[in-house]
Automatic annotation (TrEMBL):
This is DUF305 domain-containing protein. Transmembrane segments: none annotated. Residues 33-187 form the DUF305 domain. It comes from Aeromicrobium fastidiosum. Pfam families: DUF305. PROSITE patterns: PROKAR_LIPOPROTEIN. The lineage of its organism: Bacteria, Bacillati, Actinomycetota, Actinomycetes, Propionibacteriales.
Length: 189
């Protein structure tokens, strides 16, 4: 009986250690990590909303491919960051929440907490466009949007603590910098 009790206690202790070890890496976070996830989720949501518009507003293969790539990359990143916030016991931005309904548009103004976000008017203008006008507007807006995401990712890499969040920030910087170059080529700039 003593051996069985000892084995049960040892097994319980090992289980507790392994489960806490598994979560300790992702549980190690700071305010910058939380801000990164809470800001990047609505930022990515807007990018995927913009990208989804391309399906019905352009026939340009390069724009359609870019929009599909943006949706394919950023949708799963939203899910990942949502998971972190839940695990950390922090608020997840509600769908459609751009930080309390404030206009965070930033076409060059670095004072915004979410640089590169489009205003409601800009989104409505994009939604109302099609063809060549859509392509031009989509690419121009998405360059600004991506530049904002790169800026936010740089801040996470310098100020964040969570290894997974910093790694995602590195991926965002790399991928979106490459997409910016592609979009500038498509714009001819």
């Amino acid at each position: 009986m003593k051996v069985a009790t000892l084995v049960a206690v040892a097994a319980a202790a090992l289980t507790a250690c392994s489960s806490s070890d598994d979560s300790s890496a992702s549980a190690d976070f700071n305010k910058a990590d939380v801000s990164f996830a809470q800001d990047m989720i609505p930022h990515h949501r807007q990018a995927t909303e913009m990208a989804a518009l391309a399906k019905t507003r352009t026939d340009t293969a390069a724009v359609l491919e870019l929009a599909a790539d943006i949706e394919a990359a950023q949708g799963p990143e939203i899910d990942t960051m949502t998971g972190w916030l839940k695990e950390w016991g922090k608020d997840v931005p509600a769908d459609g929440d751009d930080m309390g309904g404030m206009d965070h548009s930033n076409m060059g103004d670095d004072s915004s907490s979410m640089p590169g976000m489009m205003s409601d008017d800009q989104m409505a203008e994009l939604e109302a466009s099609s063809g060549v006008a859509f392509d031009q507007m989509f690419l121009t807006m998405m360059v600004a949007h991506h530049e904002g995401a790169v800026q936010m990712a740089k801040a996470e890499q310098s100020d964040g603590k969570n290894a997974e969040a910093k790694a995602l920030a590195g991926t965002i910087r790399k991928d979106q910098t490459a997409e910016i170059a592609t979009m500038r080529d498509l714009l001819g700039s």
